[in-house]
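Help! Submission page says 'invalid entity' but I think these are all valid:
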Amino acid sequence: MNTNRLLANLNPEQREAVTLPTGPALVLAGAGSGKTRVLVHRIAWRIETEDTPPQSVLAVTFTNKAAREMRARVLTLVGPRAQSMWLGTFHSMAYRILSRHAREAGLRPDFTILDEDDQRRLIRQLIRERQWDEREFPPALAQWYINQKKDAGMRASQVPDGVGREDRALRDLYQGYEMKLRSLGAADFAELLFCCHDLWQKQPALLESYQARFREILVDEFQDTNTLQYLWFRTLTGTSGNPFVVGDDDQAIYGWRGGRVEHVLRFPKDFEGTRVIRLEQNYRSSGAILSAANALIAHNPSRLGKTLWTASETGERPVYFTADDELEEADYIVTRIQQALSGGQPAGTIAILYRSNAQSRVIEESLVRHEIAYRIYGGVRFFERSEIKDTLAYLRLMTDPENDSAFERVFNVPTRGLGDRTFERVREHARQEGRSLAASALAIAQPKAVSADRSARALRGFLELLADMREAIRPLNLAGQVERVIALSRLAEFYQTDDPLRAETRIESLAELVNAAAGYEPDPEMESTPAEFSGLMAFLGQMALATEPESRPGKSDEIQLMSLHAAKGLEFHTVFITGLEEGLLPHSRATETAGGLEEERRLFYVGITRAERQLYLTRARRRRLHGHYIDTLPSRFLLEIPADQLESGEPRIVTRTARSRVQHRFPNTDPGLPVTIGQRVRHPRFGEGVVLSHEGSGDHCRIHVRFEGSGAKWLLWDQAHLETLES
DNA sequence: AACACCTGTGTTTTT
DNA sequence: CACAGGTGTT
């Protein structure tokens, strides 16, 4: 076997890490030092040279996206037999394990995973049951409290006695929440790890079987692991596994979500004989960009200490530009982008980064005015959209008719004459009998002698609908089932009447869900129970842990817009970091907490180190915030980069008159298109708007329009009946 | 149950 | 300012 191939393009440190003998290993990998490459090659190396069976490999990443990418790269190196390794997020790994032992872990066999929304709804319910004042105990705060404890690996019983009344109340609520979850047999995200961990503690033999199986355990982005994840990982690794973790303390940016950099320091203490390897050569950025990054991060007192160097040329200094306001800032950025694009630079190599998503709006508007295509990451996530959750709830009721949260969700969606009173009746019955909502509904709906009870009839209608649906989809394939459930539930019609402004976008999402089902490939490792709807069950399980449908290829001809957090792990030729102002970066809320400032600095550091060749730092003297303008101060972080390492951007590149001029030109870029980017259009219902972008061409193309008042929507040209307007 | 009004909120994000 | 979510009215 040609193993040299695996080492050919690695530097000595990378090679050392990849070829380390068994035993715990910690790789401190600076930004752009080939972290993922080391991880991927390590896996390949173990499989190819040590004859490690792929199924004894478990690799954990921070996001699904990173997992997909890593899997693809390992497969390229090792071939299809690597398919059998376990590679995914902490949560998806725990879910895989739990779904084989659900009952033993105290969960329903086909348990639901509650997302943030479901969780908040449950907590609100508990607060109301206790008749607490929701202003004194905001559900969001309680939720934050509970998740924080869970992320720290604490059950309610382990939370130390608080001093105040409020502390005790919150702890009590946490306890109530735990009981509620257990009675539902459901799990929230943290619970997946927690439950799995508890199960291992309860059943040492089971733990041993997993320890025996997973000989190689690798963790990416180790600096962002929270305590619960760390405990889970440490338990699974035990004393015999070979942990291989990769991280960068300078890129720890999830402290607010429980991430603890300290785990990096703790690792060598918990795992005796840990070999530490540092990767300090940066292959990504030019010398000038790297110097700025190094100068900035040197201001963080608590660091493991690591200085990145590069063999690349110095390149151009980062440019710093101060605009009068956020409009000018946006126009400056767009002007620079136009210059780059006209010089032949592909749009996909340019990124605009910001601290908070709200900042994107002004920039988007400027991009639209200048007819530049862009793609924005973040915002409302696919699986959090209400239409998706409604549909998933119906689907869940197909596989698990007694699922209370799904039942509650679609009880009166679409409206079918079932109001709060009926629901309370059902819930009360369920509480008394200890049955599920569906079973109680059935009992209540029984026709009593001569019953003209309207709600009982409506209830029967609902139950019959579910039963009919179950029959109707039985013989269909997965995509067909999803499609049929959407049709039979009449959700589309409901959205149309409920909120016509959003109906079109919502129906588009539903179509995308059907697509996701059509493209779904079952996890071969998952227990394939012969139960009916087992395919649907597996699909729902996977969807609960997903954020985006998989079929969304990024286009290379669009400018990339995203938050600094979302940019982690990515790289771009040209990067704009915007809003370098006190209060924004560092964020005002972050300066209050201990360590918050350091985390903000790391966030800026992450942003800087995304840039390969060109970096722009921009700021506005005054910025509109919550309605009115406030004067700003430059970010303190700017002063931490020596002035001679920055270039001053040309002021006033764009004038207001230039802005209004561009607004009136509409060159037709694509002759196949019925409209042009930037053109004004009128929709029979939504009114007037501006065309932002398009997909496809001809009469069947989809176009993206920002309407005045009702926001941006995707429309099908041949169905939307748009009227084009002269500007 | 549907609609109009009101009020609070407004970081980052994954799962 | 802009929007979501909740409350109150019909």
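Support: the input was valid. A stray whitespace character was the problem, and the output above is from the cleaned input. DSSP finds 28 helices and 21 strands in chain A.
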